[in-house]
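Consider this:
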Amino acid sequence: MEWPRHRVEQRVWTPRQRQGSRADRTLHSITVSIPASIAELDYDPTGAVGRAHEAALIAIAGLEAGFGEHLAPLADFLLRSESVASSKIEHIDAGWRAFSKAVAGGKASNEAKAQLAAVRALIALIDAAGAGPITLVDLLAAHRLLMAPDYYAARDAGQLRDVQNWIGGSDYTPLHAAHVPPPPELVPDLVDDLLVFVNRTDLPILAQAAIAHAQFESIHPFTDGNGRIGRALISAVLHRRGLTRKVTVPLASVMLADTAGYFTHLDRYRDGEVDEFVRYVSVGALHSTEAAKEAAQALAALPARWREMARPRANSADEALLAGLLDTPILNVDNAQQIAGTVETSTYRALGRLTEAGVLEVISDSKRNRIWAATDVLAELDVLSASISRRVAGQV
C-alpha cells in the first residue's frame, strides 16, 4: 500500500562543544528526516500482509480469552516480560535477581531501577489508554516515570525535546548517524498529528499500533527513552482499541531477538514501506502470542508442583503462601505476612520451610529487608524470551 516517504532536508549544524574528531568539529550541515502527516491517512492491509494481520489478531484474542480472563498472574508476568525485554534492547539488563530486589523495594542497581521504571511507565500508558484518548499529558507522564531513576535525565524528563538528537554515529554530532529525526521545533506538531492517528477507531487495530510505533520512533520526541515509550505505545493502542484487556503482547522480545532487523524495518518504514512494517509486527505478534500461551500453561502448572515439593499442612501458613505465589512471586516479610495471615514469627518459619523445600530462594539477605522469590516464576521470563527468539529466527 502506498505510504508517504519521509522527506529529507539539509539543516545548519552549529557545534556546541569542541569535542570529538576533526570531522565532528568541522560539521556544519546535517540531513534530517521529517515524517509526513499521518493523522488522516487510511490503511488497509491486503494480500499476505492482511492474512498475517488477521492471524495475529486471532492469536491475541485467543490468549486474552483463554488465559487473560482466567489466569490473573499472567497479566503481571507479561507486563514485566515486555518491559524487561524493551529495556534490554537499550542495553539495560540487570538480571532477574537484581530486578526482583527492585520490585520488592530492596537495595537495587541502577539498571534494575531502570527496568522497574519501564514497568511503571508501561502500566501508566496502558491505564491511560483504558480511560480515554491517549494524550500528550499521558505520554509525558509515562516518560517522567521512565526517567525517574536517572538523576542526569531530570531536566528532560516528562517534556518534549528542545534539542536535535540522532541515532548512531558519533557521540558528539550527527556525523554518520543512522537516523537524524526532525528538528525540535517540528516535534510538537508531529506529536499532535500522531496522537490524532493513535486515537482513531476506524483503522485495523494491530496495523494502527505498528504504524503508531514506527511514526513515534521516527519523530523521536524525547532526548532519551524513546524506544521504551514507543514500544509501550503499541500495548497502549491495543488496549485502547479493546483487543487486549488483561494481557500484554510480548512484542519487545521479538524485537530483542534481532535488533538489527528491527531497526532495518523501522528504516524501511521511513522509506514508505508501511506494508512490510505491519507484516513484521503481525508475524512477531503471532509468534510471541503463541509463546505466551506456553508460558501461561507453565505458570498454571506451578502451584501443583510447589505443593508436591513442600507438602504443606492443610490451613497452614505454608499453604496460604503457596496459594499466593503466582500473584506475588517476590516477597518480603510484610507482604508474606499479609498473604499468610499469621504473626511474623510463624511467617518466617513458613518462609524458611518453603526455602528448604526449594520453592523459594532468598535473593537478598539484608537484615532490614530480606527478600524471597519463587524462582520458577522468574525463570519463565527467560524461557519466554528464548522461546520467542527460536520462533522468530529468520521469520520476521
